[in-house]
């Protein structure tokens, strides 16, 4: 680990562990400080953590090397914990509750940005594999950020809010399948109808199989673990289940994040979900910022400032926003505010960063093109809260009821939802 920061810890004859500890200390401190600064300007903490990574990376301070093996493993664990939290907070029944409108918005919100991203990237000279990753990154929707902002505005339980959540759930599931397909293509499997069908079949089949088998096995297992009464046992077993499922997904030819997401889906309906959520969030507060910082450290500021990167980044922002807003108008029969739905689907947040990191790790997304995707993710995440505020108007009385997505929001938005804070305060007073 040859960085100026690491040199401070390089004592003669000493192992490299002190150097690694200093880097981790810098990452955790910087991400928390920058995350808090982002919150103070009413932006998700993930943006601050991303900026912290840029500052610590090779373009500025040279503290954080995202390719360092131990840090890379910690970053991968952060992704798994994050996707486990997404699955844990995902209610598949929401798709049935909001019906055809959510499915229509979700499908349009995948097809339109994907097609637009592919067209823009190809037009500006990107290689086919790079254009594929860029297009895939535009399909994402950050359910954590959307739920948080709608909850703050008191619109989460309106018809529009339920459509957004249902569509975001659909985007999560299909987006992960797309990610698995893209990962297979990047790994050299080629773009063929048979290859895409095979990768999609494995990903969807694994999720369905994990839900069916996992539900049968894990519900009684978690109940038995809860009866043991050992402190932390429920959370530890749940995380172990997520890691095992992620490993199994990789073994059958899918992506590890598919397995982690499926594990969260399995445990969503268990009575112990809120305790699992608490432990997952605690672990995520350490590991997830390492992932976001590592993504930021990949950004090459010099390459990002090139005319080609700025042109691509600007074009992707336009396509990313237009595609999701247009998707909000897809269910023409829906009587609510279609503009509100479309804007709420705009933020890419943590999911878009996962796509970008996958492309960078595979070596097909680097330099100006990687930076352009990061700019798109940051811009779409940054503009959504104020735009939603203008469209939705003043917060409704009694808003902020977003407890069902509290764990994911803490990891992404960086703050405890009001309802949870109120609950904690009442417990202290009782």
Regarding quaternary structure, what we see is: single chain
Strand percentage lies at under 5%
Overall structural class, as computed from helix and strand content, comes to: mainly alpha
- Rg, rounded, reads 21 Å
Helicity level: over 70%
What are the key terms here?
430 residues; single chain; disordered C terminus; Na+/H+ antiporter like fold; mainly alpha
Task: Tell me what the structure shows.
The chain has 430 residues and is mainly alpha-helical. The chain has one domain (16-424): Up-down Bundle (Na+/H+ antiporter like fold), CATH 1.20.1530.20. 76% of the residues lie in helices and 0% in strands. It is built from 19 helices and no strands. The protein has helices at 4-7, 17-40, 45-56, 69-88, 93-123, 128-137, 143-152, 159-189, 193-228, 233-251, 256-267, 273-297, 301-304, 307-328, 338-344, 349-362, 367-392, 406-412, 418-429. It is globular. Residues 8-15 and 420-430 have low confidence and may be disordered.
Précis, in short:
The protein has helices at 4-7, 17-40, 45-56, 69-88, 93-123, 128-137, 143-152, 159-189, 193-228, 233-251, 256-267, 273-297, 301-304, 307-328, 338-344, 349-362, 367-392, 406-412, 418-429.
Question: How are the secondary structure elements laid out?
Answer:
Elements lengths: L3 H4 L9 H24 L4 H12 L12 H20 L4 H31 L4 H10 L5 H10 L6 H31 L3 H36 L4 H19 L4 H12 L5 H25 L3 H4 L2 H22 L9 H7 L4 H14 L4 H26 L13 H7 L5 H12 L1
Helix pairs in contact: 2-3, 2-12, 3-12, 4-11, 4-12, 5-6, 5-8, 5-14, 6-8, 6-16, 7-8, 7-17, 7-18, 8-9, 8-15, 8-16, 9-10, 9-11, 10-11, 10-12, 12-18, 14-15, 14-17, 15-17, 16-17
């Amino acid at each position: 680990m040859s960085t100026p920061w690491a040199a401070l810890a390089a004592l003669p004859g000493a192992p490299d562990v002190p150097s690694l500890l200093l880097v981790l200390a810098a990452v955790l401190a910087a991400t928390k400080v920058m995350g808090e600064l982002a919150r103070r300007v009413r932006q998700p903490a993930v943006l601050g953590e991303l900026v912290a990574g840029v500052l610590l990376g090779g373009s500025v301070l040279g503290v954080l090397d995202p390719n360092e093996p131990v840090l890379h493993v910690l970053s991968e664990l952060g992704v798994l914990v994050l996707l486990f939290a997404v699955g844990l907070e995902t209610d598949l029944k929401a798709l049935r509750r909001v019906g055809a409108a959510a499915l229509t918005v979700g499908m349009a919100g995948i097809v339109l940005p994907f097609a637009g991203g592919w067209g823009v990237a190809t037009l500006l000279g990107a290689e086919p594999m790079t254009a594929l990753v860029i297009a895939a990154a535009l399909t994402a929707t950050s359910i954590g950020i959307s739920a948080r902002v709608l909850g703050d505005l008191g619109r989460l339980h309106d018809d529009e809010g339920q459509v957004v959540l249902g569509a975001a759930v659909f985007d999560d599931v299909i987006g992960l399948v797309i990610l698995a397909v893209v990962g297979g293509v990047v790994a050299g499997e080629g773009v063929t109808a048979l290859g895409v069908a095979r990768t999609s079949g494995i990903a969807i089949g694994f999720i369905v199989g994990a839900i069916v088998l996992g539900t049968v096995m894990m519900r009684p297992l978690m109940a038995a673990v809860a009866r043991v009464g050992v402190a932390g046992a429920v959370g530890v077993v749940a995380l172990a289940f997520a890691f095992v499922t992620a490993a199994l997904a990789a073994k059958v030819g899918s992506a590890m994040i598919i397995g982690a997401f499926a594990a969260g889906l399995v445990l969503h309906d268990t009575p112990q979900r809120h305790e699992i959520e608490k432990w997952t969030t605690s672990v995520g507060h350490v590991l997830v910022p390492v992932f976001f910082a590592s993504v930021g450290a990949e950004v090459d500021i010099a390459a990002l400032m090139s005319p080609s990167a700025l042109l691509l980044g600007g074009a992707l922002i336009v396509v990313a926003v237009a595609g999701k807003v247009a998707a909000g108008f897809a269910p023409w029969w829906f009587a609510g505010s279609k503009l509100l739905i479309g804007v709420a689907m705009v933020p890419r947040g943590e999911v878009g960063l996962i796509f970008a990191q996958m492309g960078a790790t595979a070596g097909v997304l680097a330099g100006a093109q990687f930076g352009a995707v990061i700019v798109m993710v940051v811009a779409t995440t940054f503009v959504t809260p104020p735009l939603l505020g203008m469209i939705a108007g003043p917060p409704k009385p009694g808003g902020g009821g977003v407890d069902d997505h509290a764990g994911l929001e803490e990891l992404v938005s960086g703050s405890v939802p009001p309802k949870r804070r109120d609950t904690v305060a009442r417990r202290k007073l009782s």
